[in-house]
TrEMBL record:
HAMAP family: Cytidyl_kinase_type1. Its EC number is 2.7.4.25. CDD domains: CMPK. One of its GO terms (cellular component) is cytosol. This is Cytidylate kinase. Belongs to the cytidylate kinase family. Type 1 subfamily. The keyword Transferase applies. ATP binds at G7, P8, A9, S10, A11, G12, K13, S14, T15. GO terms for biological process: nucleobase-containing small molecule interconversion; pyrimidine nucleotide metabolic process. Keywords: ATP-binding, Cytoplasm, Kinase, Nucleotide-binding, Transferase.
């Protein structure tokens, strides 16, 4: 079973994908974390975020791995836990530029398909239903209003003891959504056969239930 969950920033993709994967014992693959890791690799290598050749060289010399530790999935870059480092505002601001590079996308899509292999997977991102797993049995496109997505992220940061202005978060979300939807290669777009789910007024449990029901229905068909 392959489940693809796409949608704009902070629609709740990773939160619900993680829960559904745990409940059903599927493998969860956070493709956004992989593009964030590429951005961190570029930053640490002091190369310009537009220098595709240099970034690809650095990626070739690097490792990006997911490790399950307790209830959490950690992202390791070159053997070091980078789970926090890939979510700083600096990486968030620049990830859309790096993820738009053709060579970077080619490498990551190949890796993602390899990771999906023959396992039951839930993969979340922007182009999973359209490009990475076009034959996925279940495709979901999660959306929510910009205001609710900014509020969710604000509360998420607050819980972690980080204060970020809600207007800045809203601005970042709008800019990133625009860049992700307007890039030339596999832009953020609902696959024709994806089911759109507006989560503006749904809590996490409700979204988990909806997605689980879609998977169960598909298993029966
Ligand atoms: O969690 P958040 O919504 O902030 O974003 P993310 O899923 O961590 O993705 C970070 C960025 O990676 C996105 O804004 C896209 O630029 C890029 N991305 C992509 O291009 N393709 C994917 N399949 C996943 C993420
Ligand atoms: O992965 P993506 O960027 O789409 O979003 P996320 O990181 O899973 O969710 C962003 C925040 O929204 C998290 O703090 C979730 O707990 C919260 N959330 C929510 O409040 N209600 C939902 N229906 C889904 C997510």
């Amino acid at each position: 079973m392959q489940v693809a969950i796409d949608g704009p920033a902070s629609a709740g993709k990773s939160t619900v994908a993680k829960i559904v994967a745990k409940n059903l014992n599927y493998i969860y693959i956070d493709t956004g974390a992989m593009y964030r890791a590429c951005t961190l690799i570029a930053r640490d290598g002091n190369v310009d975020y537009s220098d595709e050749k240099a970034i690809l060289n650095l990626i070739d010399q690097s490792t990006i791995e997911f490790k399950n530790e307790g209830n959490e999935q950690k992202v390791y870059v070159n053997g070091k836990d980078a789970s926090i480092a890939i979510r700083t505002p600096e990486i968030t601001e620049n990830v859309s530029q790096v993820s738009a590079l053709k060579g970077v996308r080619q490498k990551m899509v190949n890796l993602q398909r390899e990771m999906a292999g023959k396992n039951n997977v839930i993969m979340d991102g922007r182009d999973i239903g359209t490009t990475v797993l076009p034959d996925a049995q279940v495709k979901i496109f999660l959306i929510a209003s910009v205001a609710s997505r900014a509020r969710r992220r604000f509360l998420d940061f607050k819980e972690k003891g980080i204060h970020q202005d809600i207007a800045d978060i809203e601005h970042d979300i709008e800019v990133r959504d625009y860049k992700d939807s307007h890039r030339a290669i596999s832009p953020l777009k609902k696959a024709d056969d994806a089911i759109e789910l507006d989560t503006t007024n749904l809590n996490i449990d409700q979204v988990v239930q909806e997605i689980t029901a879609l998977i169960e229905k598909n298993k029966k068909n």
